[in-house]
Amino acid sequence: ISIPAKKKEKTYVALTNFETTVRQFQGALAKEPDRSLIRYEKVNRLINSILRASRQSDYVVFPECSLPRRWAMNIAAKLAQQGISLIAGVEYYDHKNGGHIIRNDSLVSLATRWPGYPSNIVFMQPKLCPSHGEAELIRKAKARQYIPKNENEILPIYEHGKFHFGVLICSD
Known about the structure:
Helices cover 27% and strands 30% of the residues. By secondary structure, the chain is α/β, with parallel strands linked by helices.
C-alpha cells in the first residue's frame, strides 16, 4: 500500500509503553470499554509529551488493544495535523453492530499532504490469529474473532514515502 509522504533521510518512531489492564481488555471484549476520564487524561498526557519532545517523531506506536477505537481516530487526526503518523492497537469492537464477531485491529494512520494540506489515510488491519489465552477469552464471551478472507487485508506492506514497514499483531 503506497501513500505519498515527504521523503526523509531518518525516520523517528515514538514507541509507547501504555498499560492496558486485564479488566480493560475484558471490558472491551464484553462491549463495555473503559472510556473513563482518568484513562483519557493518561492518553492525552502521553500524546502531548510526544508532541512537546525536542525531536519530532514521524510515527507514534501504541501496543495491541491499548486505545478505544473512537479515541484512536481522533488522536490519529490530531497527530496528522502535525505530520505524525499513528500505528495503534485498538480495543475489540463489534465487526457488525450487535453481532458476535469481534475485531482486534491495528489502526494504521499515515500522515500525508496528498490532497494539498495536512491529512491522513487510515487503514484498519485485522489480527489474523488470536493467542491461545485470547482465543479462550473470546470463546468464553461467546464471540468469534473476525478473520479476513480477502487477500488484500492480509499483512500488507506499507510504503510511506521512503519508509516501508509491515504490522504484526501479537501472535500473527
